[in-house]
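**Protein record**
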Amino acid sequence: MRKALITRKTAETDISASVNLDGSGAYDIETGVGFFDHMLDQLARHSLIDIALKASGDLHIDDHHTVEDCGIALGQAIAQALGDKRGIRRYGECHLPMDDAQIRCALDLSARPFLVWNVTFPTAKIGAFDTELVREFFQALATHGGITLHIDQIHGFNSHHIAEATFKAVARALRMAVETDPRKGDAIPSTKGAL
């Protein structure tokens, strides 16, 4: 089974994150940051990766440490659940529209973390949530998940739609990349023989 559980405890956060790559998109998420919970629900639902994540953090300071550390824990969980990556498709992509917003995501589960981020938010906040934390989350996810992750905003003027389309586009690309390839179910998807 392609499952993993990561626990991460620091002076700033205490996080438990579990994933099942062969799930149905079930989610049980509590971070104390309402908008972020909603985005992580979207990540699970549209990737078909079951995610259970509980986090308590220093929200009396701000949301930064909680959001970033959730990205670290989820990235580590995905990488652990993938194991040697035998039989996966490896690459995923999605053009996702949400009302005024369209986001393009392409990713490679390469073990070579890199984030290309071409997304701008017209507002600094969505409710009480700092929009700059969307990038922080994906930077942490890419770095600790070993993901080459390209996210490009085609257009959009509503910050909520832009953020949600971003999470959904990454989710759909992840869904494609982690799926097993029926034509190469026993092979590492690299000419190197390892990822």
Summary: The helical segments are 34-47, 64-82, 132-145, 159-178. The CA atoms of residues 122 and 159 lie 6 Å apart. The beta strands are 3-9, 13-20, 27-30, 50-57, 91-98, 101-108, 114-118, 125-126, 129-130, 148-155.
